[in-house]
Amino acid sequence: MQKYSFFQDFEGWEAFRSRPLHERLPLFFREGRIYDVLFSQQFDRPFLDGLYDLTNRIRRIAKDREGMNWLHGLHGHQRAMLYFVQPSTRTFLSFLNACHILGFHTSEIRNPQTSSEIKGESPEDSIRTFSSYVDLIIMRHPLEGFSEKTAWLLNAYSDRPVPLINAGSGKDQHPTQALLDVYTLQRSFEHRGGIDGKAIAMVGDLRRGRTVRSLSYLMKNYSGVKLLYASPPEFRIGEDIKEFLVAQSIPFEERNSLDAVLGEADALYMTRIQDEHDEEGASESHYSAFSLFRESLSRMKPDTIIMHPLPRRGEIDVAVDRDPRAMYWRQERNGMWIRAALICRIFGTDRQVIAEGQAFCS
Ligand code: CP
Predict the structure, then answer these.
(1) Of 143, 59, 135, the residue nearest 330 (C-alpha)
(2) If pLDDT is split at 50, 70 and 90, which confidence band does 273 have?
(3) Would you say 222 and 248 are in contact if contact means Cβ atoms under 8 Å apart?
(4) Is the pTM here over 0.90, yes or no?
(5) Is the CB–ligand 1 distance for residue 276 below 6 Å?
(6) Has residue 3 got a pLDDT over 60?
(7) From 6-15, 132-141, 203-212, 253-262, the region with the lowest mean pLDDT
(8) Is there a catalytic annotation at residue 140?
(9) Which of 310, 312, 338 to mutate to test the pocket of ligand 1 (most atoms within 8 A of CB)?
(10) DSSP 59
(11) Is the distance from the beta carbon of residue 89 to the nearest atom of ligand 1 less than 6 Å?
């Protein structure tokens, strides 16, 4: 992992950060519209339902060349920066391609050793520099809270703030992954009453997996959902998430094996061990008890869907891929479309998609 030389202190940041989340959130909205996308707690049910509809519209428009050309014109005059200084395959590529679908010209930094950070420029000054050149910043960073700090900084200090999207922040949050996860759940349960009332099992390294944290927060938007957390004892879901679920009256149970949730779940959300966060020896866990093999499939309900944010290791055997309940490859494709919809929503071009896009749908 890159060792940064220093992070900067800005007057007002510590005071802002110490305020409760509900007091900080309004800074990241403009005229009733989301502007900086930083936390799953920013999304409510009307937003999620609207984004679901918008994503489906964009997919229909993109089905032919004429529609795709029209989508390119929506943001053909704008530029986006992808600052991904933590490894990524699908989040990076799905955002890059979402930007290209909408016509954005893009630039990227994936290795700060190739930027002026190697000369000692702070990451904060780097972000401020990007905002001099582009209209949108999409960021993955290993430090929890850094995307919020830079969004705050652009809003508080810069005379040219641009929207900032958190594409994964340390062990903390991955809000756009949660968006594509609920989109996948909603599409899968479209003819079964939607997400409401479903039992969703999250399996694996829940302590350090930011996707399960962000997805858990989103469950406040659905009624009658029950969460089943299955993990090795050392990788249990965080106390802060449990406190949130209790406060929101969302029922949850913790179990100590995959077998213990297999027959009950409507959705099985598998995750890999997050050993990039290891302190020495921490991940010497018996992870095979939290891995899905073909032999286990018969113990699942016939319509349970299998999800995974990917990348995977051995926790879903490749033999499972051919089972019709395996959704993870569709799930990663969904990411590109919902990220395109999210960007339209930030910039207000969702109104154009809704008003004019119908003409391109056969
Ligand atoms: N799901 C996810 O964030 O994958 P990447 O790390 O490949 O972006």
Answers:
(1) 59
(2) confident
(3) no
(4) yes
(5) no
(6) no
(7) 6-15
(8) yes
(9) 310
(10) H
(11) yes
